[in-house]
Design a protein that fits this description.
Four copies of one chain form a homotetramer. Chain A is α/β, with parallel strands linked by helices. The first copy, chain A, has ten helices and eleven strands. The first copy, chain A, starts with 18 loop residues before the first strand and ends with a helix. The relative contact order of chain A is 0.18. Chains in contact: A-B, A-C, A-D, B-C, B-D, C-D.
Chain lengths: 283, 283, 283, 283
């Protein structure tokens, strides 16, 4: 039973957890970006993405190999074969690898290859998975459920924290609403409120939140302005050829331009975006 | 990849799957009720419930031993100890036992003791769990996610069907909405629409849908009138002492009265409620 | 300022207001139906509808002449010309005429021709309109706003009651939600809750709530089972030719069949549907 | 009937309407702020607000005299008496006065005293009011309905445009959602999408959108970053004494600080906030 305050709770204005992976630190002055394709499709694709991310100054790569899909008939991710590709990216770069896990078995399989486990919106209250992740020694990126209240979101994080893993990053990714024009509604007011309620870093996914390529830029700027500690953006070498989520992925070139536009916003709120020099490594 | 129509799809007006457990059959002329407490608390509690269900003519008992709770500090269910209690109920009665599983491990543990696996709203898109259940030889009661569209709900069922288990019962249990006055909004229009779209039986949970004891009766009647194939109702020997969900559980006496009031509604839509004689067994 | 309880509040189990129009009384043992087309299109159309309603035993006709439409380019209703048609229906029958008003000017214009003013969902919080209606001596059918909480709904009724008009009928017509498969989500749990909270009659609009012709029957049954005091159903001599809302209007023949099926549901909850003998008049 | 494209539609990247009131222009490089109390309470209050706005460089004052309130027992605004106060503010300053109207009668009454008519969320589809405003020669600030889709919002603007008034400003003010922690959910993705769909200026109300004083600053920054053409902020000389909406009003001192913090965000997106010199006038 609960004694005293929950572990997620912010106890003072300066109470802030920092979560590090590779060269990125979430929760401090930096606002790291995680970028990459919805799904790992091939080693060539991932190498192309990795090279550009390093050039831009993006320190983390997202690389989904187990994909939760509404329909069992849709592409379910490359699966186990993807693990070798992740290994190859690791050997070639210092990029931190973020990858989604859907089950306890996935956690065990992916653990040697990833720097951060992602829990998707559909599994936000998969409590057995959360408890298993609470016993790992790697960061967990926990996405808000599609209709989760902030209390439910924070309590889901608490399941991880309570098992001993304090490296939890919260991610707002849009909530379900009534207007078919946007895939979801990005709830940036909640990002501001989460920053008051918890010491955990809070990042934003502008891609799933809007489902529209052209909106990714403006809402990324808004996310930084509201106080987000990072972004996770879908980017693909050839967005229109993306096997999944093609409508919302931006090209690597667009990502590069967006990164440049985000720098002054970060500056305007007294923070910094990691740039080339800081993350560049031979690839 | 998908070839032809999905397995859940109703192909003609008379295309209807029947799912049986114990003495109950869902999807035919009968409208069986599943009743019982939110959580198994003790053997005495469950024996009291079982005796009354048999007297009333309720053929299935719900008995949660693994409880998914928003907060990790709340009662998480009696867990493994509950398996012996389920065993005892089985030995004493012909009641079919419905119990929720949250993980693949739970499926294995509970399998010898239950007649039907329940998947809760939070796990509706826990696809690894669904696939595991698709390989079992027992019925699965799949609850609609709190903000799941009908397409997502049916596609979640498809994950089970596709693995070979055709015994799936769908359960509408209320969707999340904006009014704090009711816990959820029971979406009975969707029950009617599901009956058009799929041959799978569709039942209704009036307890979680409303979260208010006094509303369970009226919406149960509405559920039968709209065409539901069954009900799953929270009932407790002493509702106000229920460890979880106390506000919505009805007493066994209230359940008995409600059962009596539901009979003419079932008759009015050309169906029947199983009664005493049909399910009575020594307890 | 408020002193004591609001006027809408139910003060005891037997506290129930009855609202009468023509031969119909809402709030008593009878469950009257209001039926008719979305829009008045011509005198022939309305005469055809009126004749059938009388044959079936439906005591009230809906007849929209001022139509609130999302787009200014869509049919806005026949307008002032429709007043003569309403007059003609009045001279030919005892049907009570229910018609929507969108402004104070409409109230003045329509007053001599209608038996009940309807306020649509979009105007539920058009407080100046509500106050004007509170000073009329005819019943007001107040529809729930598309995202109105029950408190907002009841407080909107209070604006009418407070001006002295106690003849208010509340109408649940579906709330906005996330699934594009149904136009709205019919919230029957709220109907049951409203019956606890207020002494005002509560009716249901199964047509707007579902937006699908085939669902009107099942949800009408559910509405009666849950305790609704009446129904308002879109019916048209040739539904597929309806100028507005063609997808949800049922034919007069379907209405006749549905009426017959609703009788046993009403009986099952201890109430009655007005039948032929009670409302028949020469036409 | 509609011929060709709707009037609200943006026909090219550079197609942008500018709407001016007093010294403010919405839709150009400037991002004007409208600030002031929820309700006009007294002349002293308004004079205090006006003085500070001028000092800060805020060119428009909001001043509600007719207040739409959920409950008829709550403060309904100072009403006609407020017109003299508006007149006094006009005589003392160059501030543009924005005031809400709830009915056609209010439009006529307020017209000589205001520079911009505000239509609140509850009246977004009060089409008779919109048509009347379409025949005025002053700007209209149209707020998005609490559950309005963008199509409905834009079509509501079309009702005004079609009558000949092209000076329409759209205002996103939060939509209704499921989490009781924030009053509404600010939908900034829709602001970005509206900027693609329409040439009309789009502003944001961070006060109603969040309902929490502490969130007004962060979401104001986000609104400017996402591309909003202005802000409307509740500010009060003594927020905790505000008769209405006390939880969300910020103090004039906080407004001054916020204004300073918004300047670099505006600069970062290539725009400007009007400052002291530009709007200062003797008061």
């Amino acid at each position: 039973m609960m004694t005293g305050t929950p572990l997620f709770q912010k106890n003072s204005d300066t109470h802030q957890t920092m979560v590090s992976m590779g060269k990125a630190t979430f929760g401090g002055g930096d606002i790291p970006i995680i970028a990459g394709p919805c799904s790992v499709e091939s080693e060539d694709q991932m190498t192309a993405v990795a090279k550009t991310l390093i050039q831009i100054g993006v320190p983390c790569i997202r690389a989904g190999i187990f994909k939760p899909r509404t329909s069992p008939y849709k592409f379910q991710g490359i699966g186990h074969d993807g693990l070798d590709i992740l290994q190859s990216i690791r050997e070639q770069s210092d990029l931190a690898i973020v990858s989604e896990v859907l089950s306890i078995e996935h956690v065990m399989l992916a653990s040697p290859y990833v720097d951060c486990f992602q829990v998707g919106a559909r599994n936000m209250q998969n409590f057995e998975l959360l408890k298993t992740l609470g016993r790992q020694e790697k960061p967990v990126l926990l996405k808000r459920g599609i209709a989760a209240t902030l209390e439910e979101f924070l309590m889901a994080a608490e399941y991880i924290l309570l098992e001993g893993n304090s490296q939890v990053i919260l991610c707002e990714r849009g909530i379900r609403s009534f207007d078919p024009q946007t895939r979801n509604v990005l709830d940036l007011g909640s990002v501001a409120l989460l920053k008051e309620l918890t010491h955990l870093p809070v990042i934003v996914d502008p891609s799933h939140a809007t489902g529209k390529r052209s909106l990714v830029g403006p809402v990324s700027k808004a996310a930084i302005a509201v106080g987000a500690d990072g972004l996770i953006i879908e980017a693909h070498p050839e967005p229109e050829k993306s096997i999944s989520d093609a409508d919302q992925a931006i090209s690597l070139l667009t990502l590069q331009g967006l990164h440049r536009e985000l720098i002054p916003i970060a500056t305007a709120v007294g923070r910094t975006l990691p740039t080339l020099e800081e993350v560049a490594v031979p690839c």
